[in-house]
Structures
1.
Amino acid sequence: MPVALGREEPLSKRLETSTETHGPRGLGYAELPASRTPLDAEDAATRIIETARGRPGEITLVTLGPLTNLAVALEREPSLPRLLASYVLMGGAYGAPGNTTPTSEWNVYVDPHAAKAVFARWTAGGADPPSRPLALGLDVTEQARFVPEHLRHLAIRAGAQPLDAGALGREPIEAVGSVAENPILRFVADALRFYFEFHAKYDGFYGAFIHDPFAVAAALDRSLIRAQPVFVDVEIGRGLAHAMTVADWRGLTRKPANVEVAVEGDAGAFLDRFIERVGNLAAGRFGVAR
């Protein structure tokens, strides 16, 4: 799987990171071995464009962070929305409170100028409605609350010993025995343990909102969510509304819808599927057929 380096700074503002949420490297307590695969020779924006050009109408693009690279790609290739089969993003808060400021979600907050450009350009030039981005914001992703009991079930699905899996169902979680020996289970447990501790400190529960997997799941199966078309703009000025995703639910601006915003999600079905899929993947490292 090629990995391309993206732009290292937002379009117009100073870069901010969130080490208190996911740790200094973004993986919590988890560690990965050094990659033996070199970075792609192309930058991320070029890789997006060339992939879409090479397989027109076949590629589903999913973004799980700030939209800087996509905004650059759109600047270089305005017809990108017509080259893709679909586009799904995790980002924004369209009716829910923000998680970074009272009004903004983290991915949009890091580069609101990029998000504003993407939303404005995506349907410019008369794109058909199916080409509108599907946005999973905090309104839906915070319905998927992953807690230690889910992690215990995931470990059992993977074939971990029951007593070892039980250590994941307590607070705090602990990766021991067969869980610690399985590289996938160990990685998931170590990454989530940091995230669980963050939410325990700031949100009053020992668990985590697993936003990004929900967006990927919706890209694979749209029946997991219900979306509503709406015109969305992004506030780039200063003040409390900085980086707010402003959704015109009443149609007051009389502007055509440019985003499909997820307004309902089947969090239970998503969590069950997450446990099944990741558990099965980890089972392969135990040699257990599922």
2.
Amino acid sequence: MEFKDYYKVMGVARDATEAQIKQAYRKLARKYHPDVSKEKDAEARFKELGEAYEVLKSPEKRAAYDQLGQGPRPGEDFRPPPDWGAGFEFSGAGARDSDYSDFFEALFGARARAGADNRRGGIHPGQGVDHHAKVLLDLDATLHGGTRQLSLRVPEIDADGRLVSKERVLNVQVPKGILAGQHIRLAGQGARPHGEGTPGDLFIEVDFQPHPLYRIDGRDLYLDLPVAPWEAALGAGVKTPTPTGTVDLKIPPRSHAGTKLRLKGRGIPAAPPGDFYVILQIALPAADDDKAKAAYAAMAAALPFNPRANLGV
């Protein structure tokens, strides 16, 4: 996917004010509007300009986009990092234009659809607009539940037209067993309406920080467990960490690298609970002394084993 440099498209600096961005858009929109422009690529440039303006005119989208930095070098493929946009509070973003690029869709598509689904301001008078945010929790939050203090950045335009961010701190009750992609609804924590009425809600989308041991896949957890060659070949009982404590795991004889062992119900305590999978990884002892080298030589002589037999060599 190609990275889009929206500042370059608009011809403005990365620290441009709100007024400078509006001025640049109006000037370029007149130049490339398909109904009046004589430029051969006017329609494509006009669509690209509209997409750039959609991002840079919005304090929330612009602040999140700025987190990506300058982007990759020309010609390099781009994928947004998994934690992109976490910690930003977005207002109802509205529906996206079907002509926007895959780059825009990867960054803002889900939020735009969520904003369209939950946006209430202007639809029901007296009700404020819903807000949205994505946060990264530690695995312990879903295993045990409980209160977490979350810090959200709320982008806005200051009196000089510059983009700034304010911090908002919330104490949030995290339900035990919540899964990545699910939402926590905080009633009345969205935008206040103009005049009298009911504030909107804040919808917090949950994702998880990388864990040093476990991988999260839906409600299931995975652990790569190193085992010695003889433990895999002959079978063994080994101590194995799990989120609920160490267990004695039985390694079946004739196991191999990639063997998957399942501990039912030891994943995320959702409804129903997930499972805990142990993936065996063969750890080879180092041949760094004469004794170890002799052991490897003896094994090579005793075992007629060709690890490349399935390759026909």
3.
Amino acid sequence: MKQSIGFAAGILIPSLLMAGGVSNTALAQTWPAKPIRIVIAQAPGSATDVISRVVANQLSASLGQPIVIDARPGAGGVLGTEVAARSAPDGYTLFMANNSTHGSNPAVYAKLPYDAVNDFAPISFVASVPYVLVVDPKLPVKNVQEFIALVKASPGKMNYASAGNGSTHHFCGELLKSMTGIDIQHIPYKGSGPGIAGLLGGEVSMMFSNVADIGSQIKAGKVRALAVTVPTRASLLPDVPTMPEAGLPDFEITSWFGLLVPAGTPGAIVGRLNAETVKVLNRTDVKTTLALQGLDVAPSSPEQFAAHIKSEIARFTKIARAAGIKAE
């Protein structure tokens, strides 16, 4: 496990705070005094990486220090999340959480090496992007109801791809099965990219994918989009109906991203990070850049983001128990 960048003052912070020698306000005034890192639990080139770099570039200019992306993929996001959780709470390690690290993972792993709620302090919600139900274009279906009818006509004969057992893609598939009563087999792949490749290669009939990940294949006609998993149409796919429009009003799952720091980070630093992050996310150029990736920017207070994380864990846990989803 890579250690945080060394900084003598950071080592002294906890003892000085306990002794009352340095106030949070004083720490915020001297912070940041060295480079900052944003840990991500996904691979370079992933949606988490892309959004982290956009935010990091702007925060770096605002804070006056370099910000590097420290990618720690592995174990379905567990590895990188643990690295962030165990880092020094000195404001020099941030974590770009998402719906896997702080939603589905706590719902499907019997034991995690981190506590998604208690080991982190929220900074701000950053953005979200819907999933989209896509099918092999050779299938004789043009909407969700036709797809459901086709599957019901041949129960157990069709299959769908996911990014792995316990992934959000898996949750989307199982939620569709529970809401419609269809019998379709789950084929877990080692990541979203391999799952998309499986669909393009005809190995599976359908999958749910992040709009940002599969938008180009939809526009090229390599897959057919049937519905997005949010109540309003996606900006990148304005002609694709929503799940409520497709007859499934309670189907809503999004891919989301938000910034956290290790628990125990001084409140003044958390407040400064929130203020600077909100300022960055409210910039027109940042919103435009992320919108081109299909991302809906939505900065928040730390309290609002904390409530969102708790609600997501509860929602994913309910789905996991009903469908018997467990991580391998």
4.
Amino acid sequence: MFTGIIEATAKISRIENEKTNKHFFIESPFLNEVKIDQSIAHNGVCLTVVEILKDAYRVTAIDETLQKTSLSTWKVGDIVNLERCLTLAKPLDGHIVQGHVDTVAHCTEKLFLDGSWKFTFQYNKKHPHDITVEKGSVCVNGVSLTVVGSQEDYFSVCIIPYTYEHTNFQYIAVGDKVNLEFDIIGKYVARILGKI
């Protein structure tokens, strides 16, 4: 369980292919605190640490994960958002995030608003619960954000300078893929209402 409040960004230092799996080596700034079997969200995707090296840790993405997220497009040198899982003593500053990506979206617009940035993302709606609501929460690349301009298959978010500078939003360009996780409460409500 996560909150969508990014702790750090990190560089992908190496990628290895093994059958249908990909191994990603992450140069984490909190490497000395990482443990084997620990869950860490990488751009919103919950991955398990399977190896710790001197300068990086390794996580493995199976084919299912690669097909349903943007991880298949990752390259050596890419910067990813990191968040360690929530502890009972940690404030829930964002919203409840599972680290289970629902779909990917494409950035269709990036606007500088003289002090903030507005990003618009479009996605293929696969399920009735793939929805956003105005002023509701959405998780984009692991970042908990407030929705503006919610439509059937696209929405916008506005990014303050701190978030822009401390996440990989500064590297997102029009056409780039991002991971989306819709609000879990909204998904349950939509599912229940669909059965009534």
